[in-house]
Structure formats: C-alpha cells, structure tokens
Design brief:
2 domains, 8% helix, 482 residues, five-stranded mixed sheet, five-stranded antiparallel sheet
Length: 482
C-alpha cells in the first residue's frame, strides 16, 4: 500500500485536478501590522488591513471557540507555504492579568505535533514540540524513543505563558531540545494580543485530521482561583473576536510581486538561472528569500537565521528552495540521498525510533505572490533505491510520464497549472523541508551557516537536478527509471 497523505487525509482531487491544499490557518489568526523588510527594488508598500469573516474563522473541521480555522475545506487559507501533509489550527486571545492558561490534551496518533507562538510579522517567538512535553502522571509520551506509538494513556498538560521566553528562539532546533511544558507567547516588542498555532503532521492511517484525538482543551484559572473552560473561557479572553490582518505580512500584492518578477531586461525564465542551473537557497529571513529575484547580486552574505520573519513558519523546520521554469523542460527531476525518518502512517504498533530527521517533504509552491502549495510528497511516499537514493519529479498532470510511479521508483509531484499564480504559468518553486534533525546528523538544512554553503553542508542530501523536454523523454528512462 502506498503510504501517503492522500489516503490518510481523504482524497483531494476534483475534475482531475487536486484541489489546492488548505493550510496556513495560522495566518488568519495572528494580528499583523506591517510588512517585513525586503530588497529596496521590490518597493514593498503598505496594504490596507482586512478583517476576516467569522464564517471563515470558525467554520473548519476541529474548530472550537478557542481554536480557529480547521485546515481543510477553505481554499482561501492555502497561504504561507503550507506542507500538504500537515493540518493547522490557530488561536488568538488577550491575556487576563494574574490568570494561568493551560492546554490539556492527548498526544495524537501522528508523525508530529507542535505549538508555535508568533509576533505580528510572522516571526516565531517560541516553539515547543511533542517530544519535549512531559506526560501527565500515569501517561507516556509516544514521541519519545522506545515508547509504543499506540500507548493508551497519553495525556499531557501545557502552560501557556503570557510572558516572554527567557531564551532566544533557536532557528536550528533539533530533536534533543530539553523537556519543558511551557510555551511563551509575548512578542519581543510586547503586545496585548497573543497568537499560537498547533500543527499535526501525517495522522496515522484511519485517524482524523487531529490525529485521532481532539485538539487540546484550554483551561483558564483566574487570580481568585475561578476556573473557566469552554465558552466562558472564550468570552473572557476574546478568542472569537475577528482580527484585522495586513496581508503584506503574509504574501505580496500584485504590484509588489510584479516589481520583483518583471524587472527590465530579465529573460522570460527569470528568476530561474540560465540553462536551468539550480539556485538552492535556505530561508534565512524573508528579505533573503525575496533576494531570489536578484540572483546576479551578492546573495546577502552575512544573513543570519533569526526566526524566519514572515509566512508564519514551523519552528522545527528549515527550508531550502529553488526557482524552476517549464521553459527548460516540462519535467523537472531531482536525484539525491534522503535521510532516515520515522515510519508512522501504517505502523501503529511500532515503537518510536531514533532517525536522522523527524520528517522531510518535497513541495511544489507557486510564488511569493500567492504563497500557495500545489502538491507535496513526504519521506514515506518516496521510493528508495540502493543507498537511500531517490528520484522525485514534478510536472503538470497532463505531462505526467507513465513511469512516474512507485513501481518504477519515481515519486511524482504535480506542478501548478497556475505557475506563479500570476501571469507566468511556467514558473515553479521547489521546496525541500527538513524537520528536527538528530543531534548527530550534520547534513540537515539546519546545519547551514552562511548563504552559499548549501552544497558543502548537505552534500549528497542536496539533490542534483535535470530537466526533460517532455514525458516521452522521461519515459525513455524505463521502469525502473534510470
């Protein structure tokens, strides 16, 4: 059986085209006031705030009066470069002085779960992940090495502090971070509103999108000892109040994007490089990411990973991206070595094993104009060859080769027919995601230190790439594809 999010999270095809996957729910639940810095030539301008409809805020699966926007069924929330194997829910509230907010839940039956706190510009303030959480007395944490994944008693309690984290956020988080059950939510500049997001990746086969459990239940203890739950809690902290959003902190306006994309004198395949040469870039900051549109310039040497302001990323992930274009060929292929990762989708009775990464995925996105994901494959979906070698390709559905199958040793990703989501229908943005590397795994994206060291650090784990003119050209590779 093929292990994939399509069977795990229900079919996502309509009239032959997979619906653009829904996520980025956190983007709809954190108040944003201004755009992060970008290259001067991009001419980032102020955008009018928008207020989301309560029907959109509270209508998705898993939503409650505290957790907003279930991550399936609202295509408008496919923003902020979501992973197709993940689901996202967010919460916003105003802290009550002297009160204590706790989240009580059960560890999901899934690959991964975490909670991130964000500031107004989408920069992470704090992250705590499943393996860190000490379970309640009498329970076990199924995300710790050696623990059975299907353990029955799996309760936890987290404290949500309205204060600022005593330590700076580490953008290169690893799977050996110290245990703790407190997440800190105060932005570095101080703010009255708090915003967090909970993520669940790859629920086990047959489990719901929350991973076979409910989202954690909030419990508020006031200074006088009164305990509030349910609607009373939501009323007290204002978690159902729609928030004004500045979309420029999430994606670029048409004018902003066009100023970057359609610079005078650039070739039609821009910002891809001449001859289809790869230009892999780690996401150090949003400004560095947008510098992709200045590939001829110094790639911002000295850039430092600072929490990846913008796009509300997952603090346990690091990303590397390459701009590609169908003008070089309708099929784009990646060949490389993939790190070891947990097998969870169809392995409910197994015990948690130590691996190089918690999770890796390959995703095709549109562009900073839409920040949409089209399609992804994750580690369990990628057929392995000797030495953990792989062959991943992307094309439009109409260009999919006959040998782009697991049987032939090929993982296929659909290329958006919208291209960049604007007028360049040939554009594509390939993204590789690394999550929570082991302390001793030195070839993760998290090990990159300075722009330009990607190949040196990742080695064989940074794939070679090649374009094929069309599906017939790729089909000549045979089955298994060579």
């Amino acid at each position: 059986m093929k292990l994939n999010r399509r069977s795990a999270n229900s079919a996502r095809r309509s009239s032959g085209l997979r619906k653009l996957l829904v996520a980025g729910a956190v983007a709809a639940v954190v108040t944003v006031a201004a755009a992060p810095a970008a290259p001067a030539s991009s001419a980032i301008s102020a955008a009018a705030p928008v207020t989301e409809s309560p029907n959109l805020l509270y209508g998705g699966p898993g939503s409650t009066c505290f957790w907003h926007v279930g991550a399936i069924g609202v295509e408008a929330y496919n923003i902020a470069y979501p992973d197709a194997g993940a689901h996202y829910w967010g919460a916003i509230w105003t802290p009550i002085p002297g009160s204590t907010l706790r989240l009580k839940g059960k560890f999901p039956y899934a690959r991964y779960t975490s909670i991130n706190a964000y500031d107004r510009l989408g920069a992470i303030q704090d992250t705590i992940s499943d393996f860190q959480w000490n379970p309640d007395a009498g329970s076990s944490n199924p995300f710790r090495v050696g623990v059975a994944r299907n353990v029955a008693k799996r309760d936890y309690t987290l404290t949500v502090s309205s204060g600022q984290s005593p330590t700076a956020f580490d953008p290169n988080r690893r799977s050996n971070a110290p245990a703790r059950n407190t997440i800190y939510t105060e932005p570095a500049g101080g703010d009255t509103i708090r915003g967090i997001a909970v993520r669940v990746y790859i629920p086990d086969k047959g489990k719901n999108i929350e991973g076979g459990v409910s989202l954690p239940t909030p419990e508020l203890t006031l200074a006088d000892g009164t305990v509030l739950t349910g609607q009373a809690l939501c009323n007290a902290v204002g978690s159902e109040v729609p928030q004004a959003l500045d979309p420029s902190a999430l994606l670029l306006s048409a004018d902003q994007y066009n100023a970057l994309r359609y610079q005078p004198g650039k070739p039609a395949y821009f910002p891809a490089l001449a001859g289809g040469k790869p230009n892999w870039r780690v996401q150090y900051t949003r400004q560095y990411l947008l510098n992709l549109f200045h590939p001829e310039a110094d790639p911002m040497q000295g850039a430092t990973k600072i929490g990846q302001s913008g796009f509300f990323p997952n603090g346990d992930n690091q990303y590397i991206r390459n701009a590609i274009n169908r003008k070089f060929g309708k099929i784009y292929a990646l060949r490389g070595t993939i790190a070891t990762a947990a097998k969870t989708f169809n392995n409910p009775k197994g015990k948690w094993q130590a691996t190089d990464l918690r999770y890796q995925s390959f995703c095709m996105n549109e562009s900073p104009k839409t920040t949409r994901v089209m399609d992804c494959v994750y580690d369990e979906e990628v057929p392995l060859r000797a030495g953990r070698k792989y062959l991943v390709i992307t094309s439009r559905a109409a260009d999919k080769p006959k040998n782009a199958t697991a049987k032939c040793g090929v993982a296929w990703i659909e290329w958006s027919p919208r291209g960049d989501g604007g007028t360049d229908t040939d554009f594509g943005w390939m993204q590789i995601r690394n999550m929570l590397p082991a302390a001793g795994f030195t070839h993760a994206v998290q090990n990159t230190v300075t722009p330009g060291d990607e190949k040196k650090v990742l080695g064989a784990y940074l794939p070679d790439s090649k374009y094929y003119a069309d599906k017939k050209a790729f089909e000549k590779l045979g089955c298994p594809a060579k």
